[in-house]
Design a protein that fits this description.
Elements: H1 3-23, H2 27-55, H3 58-66, H4 69-84, E1 89-92, H5 96-99, H6 102-123, E2 128-135, E3 138-145, H7 157-168, E4 172-176, E5 183-190
Parallel strand pairs: 1-2
Antiparallel strand pairs: 2-3, 3-5, 4-5
Helix pairs in contact: 1-2, 4-6, 6-7
Length: 191
């Protein structure tokens, strides 16, 4: 499927979901609507990947991927700032380049992207803080927002993947709602 038909299919799916919401609010209709919205999200995600492959040729992607770890993390934040509508506040440990193995750095980059994507999809936040720290034996990513908090939200597929990447490195992954509100995601692995 090419990009334009994907986007058209996503539009149809969202239009169907919108129509269902106007007609009925039964549990069955709500479940069907959620399914249509999930389908549209999957279609849009795939279209975005295809567009990125066209807009960012392999040489440009390789340049970002070949950058040092702090540069790669800053690139993710810059990408997501455009979607968030504001730049997150970022604090990165100065020891990242030397302390973090390459495969772990790759997983850190993915965990950051997925955590910020979750803020975009669910939080309705006005600010986000990203903190990456290293200690002699631990690497920790924290993403904190001032949005609506976890509430009834469950971990989307983005966060399950981040959790799996932490567990692969014998680490931990936690999401909490602090007393002052918002959501705090902590991805932490031993070095």
């Amino acid at each position: 499927m090419t990009i334009i038909p994907r986007l058209f299919a996503a539009g149809l799916s969202l239009d169907n979901a919108s129509s269902r919401l106007r007609v009925s609010t039964t549990a069955h209709a709500t479940a069907l609507t959620a399914g249509h919205i999930d389908d549209a999200i999957r279609i849009l995600d795939q279209a975005i990947k295809e567009i990125r492959a066209i807009v960012f040729p392999a040489t440009e992607r390789d340049a970002v991927e070949g950058a040092d770890l702090p540069g790669r993390l800053q690139a993710v934040v810059a990408d997501m700032a455009a979607v968030l509508g504001f730049p997150p506040l970022v604090s990165l440990s100065s020891a990242l380049t030397d302390a973090v193995p390459h495969d772990m750095g790759d997983d850190l980059v993915v965990a950051l992207r997925e955590s910020l994507a979750n803020v975009v999809r669910h939080a309705r936040a006005r600010s986000v803080e990203v903190t990456v720290t290293t200690s002699p034996h631990r690497l920790t990513l924290e993403v904190a927002d001032d949005g609506v908090g976890l509430g009834r939200m469950h971990r989307g597929r983005e966060l399950r993947c981040a959790q799996q990447r932490a567990e692969y490195h014998s680490g931990t992954f936690q999401t909490t709602t602090p007393d002052h509100g918002g959501t705090r995601v902590v991805w932490s692995v031993p070095l």
